[in-house]
């Protein structure tokens, strides 16, 4: 348990009056990222600007963290790490915490219907939105959505729960709130609006109209590398803190949060604590999703296959480093609508962050949920190159690496556990196809990911097939060396 009194000198403690905080934000997804990103920014505001914006944290699918958090007065630590510096802060802006399965979804809906609640935010991973990755539309066949359509008052999905609260607030005459996604999706505000409004449309078209008129869904670009905590990381953290903190996280010092300034019922002055409030987030998120997340995924699949456990290990291989930088500058940068940004300097700063050895960011972690990530990280860029007749070697190599990875067996013949909401479908396609061209064709015809166009594009199929064959023949390390060398 976190013991504030034993923490090392220099730890930043929440010395502000926590009882003055009000629950004005309900956040879904109390994962590593939220704890080290939005909550820290909001904590800075409370500490430095006497802000009274506090959180109710909600978990939908696992409760251990919520239990641990409640056991330590809703406090937890965030430690920023570089090779030679550690900085710990204890975050105090959480007022209450709920685990829907144990506390009951009714408690979550009641929390959302507190009159002071002005913002609902989320870091629930791409799959939490129950959308079709290729189109950004609600997946009406998703089991949780099928459930919520049948039981609108006992919903289980994020869109279903938020919708139930919107319905109730409207009936009670309470002001509407804004719903802000902080997940790595393109136009995450649009996706969030789509899934909630489309669910409403199925249940009660008048409610869908109300949402269109009265709610806003600000988009955000979020950036801070926050690896999942491992047992070893927790042990090391306990040694540094002088006590255990089961809710603690570690992250890099870098922090970026660009927010579309479009809130219906007020917002914290996040710009006073390091965020940027802008009219249009799209150029920022496109740049970040394609250059950072796109290169992360390339390193994740090809790095994992090569036996590199962490992103920083990939950076020790000069060919991998060069491949990541070349993907950013030669294949992603030209596709961007971003203006007035020095993309070379941006790429160099990303490489410098990837080299931070104090951050143990596993390639396996980044490789999870590939079906939800590929469209925004690679596939829109591939479409751009196909339309412009330009080269997309590394993007095609990345897709080939993903196919090799979801094949489920590594280069040493050991099984790879595939973590992906479409894993059953992936496994079926793998099992029903022969290794080689047939496997490539089976996976590229997954239209929920590759859309209606790419599966039928012969240049795309040929290029991916070519690099897949090289990966089988030479292995990932040698393929990257040959392609980039
Ligand atoms: P995490 O694994 O620590 O947390 C995932 C959270 O999502 C948990 O709270 C979990 O309960 C929730 N969740 C998972 N599936 C869900 C579902 N179907 N419905 C509702 N909630 C669900 O992961 P972490 O690191 O917090 O990342 C979460 C997301 O934050 C990422 O997927 C990404 O979109 C975004 N992000 C993460 C960054 C990082 O470096 N970790 C940086 C930038 C963005
Ligand atoms: C990573 C991101 O897990 C992943 O897929 O690419 O979480 C990445 O660490 C963040 O977006 C950095 O801001």
Task: Outline the secondary-structure elements.
Blueprint: E1 22-28, H1 32-36, H2 38-49, E2 53-59, H3 64-70, E3 76-82, E4 85-91, E5 94-99, H4 100-103, H5 105-112, E6 119-122, H6 143-150, H7 158-172, E7 178-181, H8 188-203, H9 205-214, E8 220-223, H10 231-241, E9 249-251, E10 256-260, E11 276-278, H11 282-306, H12 311-315, H13 318-332, H14 343-354, H15 363-367, H16 370-388, H17 393-406, H18 423-431, H19 437-444, H20 447-450, H21 458-474, H22 476-484
Helix pairs in contact: 5-7, 7-8, 8-9, 11-13, 11-16, 11-17, 13-14, 13-22, 16-17, 17-21, 19-21, 21-22
This protein binds 1,4-dihydronicotinamide adenine dinucleotide and D-mannonic acid.
Quick one: biggest sheet? 5 strands, parallel
Number of self-contained structural domains = 2
CATH level-4 homologous superfamily of the largest domain:
NAD(P)-binding Rossmann-like Domain
Architecture of the largest domain, CATH level 2? 3-Layer(aba) Sandwich
Our estimate of the beta-strand percent is 5-15%
Protein name: Mannitol dehydrogenase family protein
Organism: Erwinia aeris
Domain Mannitol dehydrogenase C-terminal: 280-468
GO molecular function: oxidoreductase activity
Task: For the structure shown, list the relevant keywords.
alpha/beta, Rossmann fold, N-(1-d-carboxylethyl)-l-norvaline Dehydrogenase, domain 2, 2 domains, five-stranded parallel β-sheet, three-stranded mixed β-sheet, globular, binds 1,4-dihydronicotinamide adenine dinucleotide
Structure description:
This is Mannitol dehydrogenase family protein. With 485 residues, the chain is of the alpha/beta class. It has 2 domains: 275 residues, NAD(P)-binding Rossmann-like Domain (Rossmann fold); 203 residues, N-(1-d-carboxylethyl)-l-norvaline Dehydrogenase, domain 2 (Orthogonal Bundle). Helices cover 49% and strands 12% of the residues. Strands 5-2-1-6-7 form a 5-stranded parallel beta sheet, with helices on both faces. Strand 3 and strand 4 form a beta hairpin. The termini are far apart. The mean pLDDT is 97. The structure holds 1,4-dihydronicotinamide adenine dinucleotide and D-mannonic acid.
């Amino acid at each position: 348990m976190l013991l504030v009194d034993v923490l090392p000198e220099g730890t930043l403690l929440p010395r502000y009056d926590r009882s003055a905080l009000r629950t004005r934000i309900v956040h879904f997804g109390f994962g590593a990222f939220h704890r080290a990103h939005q909550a820290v920014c909001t904590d800075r505001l409370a500490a430095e600007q006497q802000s009274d914006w506090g959180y109710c944290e909600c978990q939908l699918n696992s409760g251990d963290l919520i239990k641990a958090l409640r056991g330590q007065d809703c406090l937890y630590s965030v430690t920023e790490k570089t090779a030679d510096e550690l900085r710990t802060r204890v975050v105090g802006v959480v007022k209450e915490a709920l685990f829907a399965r144990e506390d009951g979804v009714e408690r979550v809906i009641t929390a959302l219907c507190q009159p002071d609640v002005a913002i609902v935010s989320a870091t629930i991973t791409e799959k939490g939105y129950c959308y079709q990755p290729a189109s950004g539309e609600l997946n009406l066949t998703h089991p949780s959505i099928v459930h919520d359509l049948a039981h609108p008052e006992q919903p289980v999905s994020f869109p279903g729960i938020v919708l139930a609260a919107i319905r109730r607030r409207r009936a009670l005459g309470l002001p509407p709130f804004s719903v802000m996604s902080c997940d790595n999706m393109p136009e995450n505000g649009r996706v969030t609006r789509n899934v909630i409004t489309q669910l409403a449309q199925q249940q009660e078209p008048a409610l869908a109209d109300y949402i269109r008129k009265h709610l806003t869904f600000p988009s955000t670009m979020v950036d801070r590398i926050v690896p999942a905590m491992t047992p070893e990381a927790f042990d090391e953290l306990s040694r540094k803190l002088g006590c255990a903190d089961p809710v603690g996280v570690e992250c890099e010092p870098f922090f970026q949060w660009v927010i579309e300034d479009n809130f219906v019922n007020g917002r914290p002055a996040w710009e006073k604590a390091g965020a940027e409030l802008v009219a249009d987030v799209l150029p920022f998120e496109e740049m970040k999703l394609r250059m950072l997340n796109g290169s992360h995924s390339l390193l994740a699949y090809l790095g994992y296959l090569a036996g590199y456990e962490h992103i920083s290990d990939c950076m020790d291989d000069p060919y991998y480093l060069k491949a990541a930088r070349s993907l950013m500058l030669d294949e992603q940068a030209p596709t961007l609508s971003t203006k007035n940004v020095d993309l070379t300097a941006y790429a160099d700063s990303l490489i410098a962050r990837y080299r931070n050895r104090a951050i143990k960011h596993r390639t396996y972690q980044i490789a999870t949920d590939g079906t939800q990530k590929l469209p925004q990280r690679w596939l829109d860029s591939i479409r751009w190159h196909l339309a412009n007749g330009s080269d997309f070697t590394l993007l095609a190599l990345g897709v080939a690496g993903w196919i090799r990875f979801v094949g489920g067996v590594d280069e040493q013949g050991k099984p790879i556990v595939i973590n992906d909401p479409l894993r059953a479908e992936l496994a079926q396609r793998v099992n029903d196809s022969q290794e080689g061209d047939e496997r490539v064709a089976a996976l590229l015809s997954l239209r929920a990911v590759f859309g209606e166009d790419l599966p039928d594009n012969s240049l795309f199929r040929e290029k991916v097939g070519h690099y897949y064959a090289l990966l089988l023949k030479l292995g990932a390390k040698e393929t990257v060396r040959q392609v980039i060398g």
